[in-house]
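Q: Structure tokens for this one, please.
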Amino acid sequence: YSYNKVTHQNKKEFTVANGYFQSVLMSDEGLWIANAFKVFLRKGNRIIKEFDFSNDARFITDIGKDVYGNIWLAEQGNPDMYMIDRSLQLKRVKIPLGKEGVINMVYTNSEGVYVASAGKNSYLFYKANNDSVFKNISVPIRFEVRNDLNVVDMTIMNNTIWLATSEGLMKCDHDTIQRVDFDATFSKMPTKAVKVYANQLLFANAYGMILYNPATGAYELFNEGTGMLSNTVVSRGIFIGKDRTVWVGTSKGLCFSRRPFTEFHPTPTPRFIETLINGKHTRIHSKKEIEYGSFISLKISSITFPEKEITIQYRLSPEKNWSTVHNFEINLSS
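A: Here is the predicted structure, written as tokens:
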């Protein structure tokens, strides 16, 4: 289907009996379409080339294009990558997966081609544009993971590789890899997609889609309460257009943003509704002195609806880090 943002109309572009479309890509040659075991090249209103991988009995899950215009195909369970050159010739390129690896997706940039996989020792592979072979660049994982690591999406920002994995959002600087622990709620939750957006990151997990600023640690959550059709985003289900429109593929359909995510209206200031000092209700004002060593409990109410979708953070001084409020209550001791 194609969708017109002006008329809000869908148009059926291409139909395959029992079709299962997983990826599309635009190139100079036309529109590349991955459908189950086949890949089609569509130019205008007709299919000009078809590649059939039925003998592999595995789905084509992702398509990428390198700087030379070559098309790379990710096929789960295949130890090789397929590459279609500008003359539409199909080639196979070996990936040193080892015993654990399973190809999930392909990522390309101006420097080369990356392949994301599975396994703690085989989750990332790379081939520079002027190289002919892929190398395993998986950095050893020094922290505990619950299951075997599975990378389903990746992006690169400021020379840091960001990975959407079964163990949460991770970042790799080519020497070390670490889990991004910016909020205890999200840190170990499986992540389905990640993209760069205006020097920030958009990634998705079971809570919805999150806009995260690595420099400050601040984040915004987008979910059903903010207009998404579903909190469940499909694997690699985030796409950012040239006009910075964000398109999100969810379990209940496609949705998109109507304005840049960096243009936020300020949320009304929350209100303190109750103060307890050493367990006693106390009215607070600017001249109120609190005895040193007291235990202080502040209850907060957001006047923005729905309240359960609001994240409240606080800090005690400008040089301190922001802390997230849980259950709309701040507990302090002096």
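A few notes: The longest strand covers residues 233-240. The two ends are 60 Å apart (CA to CA).
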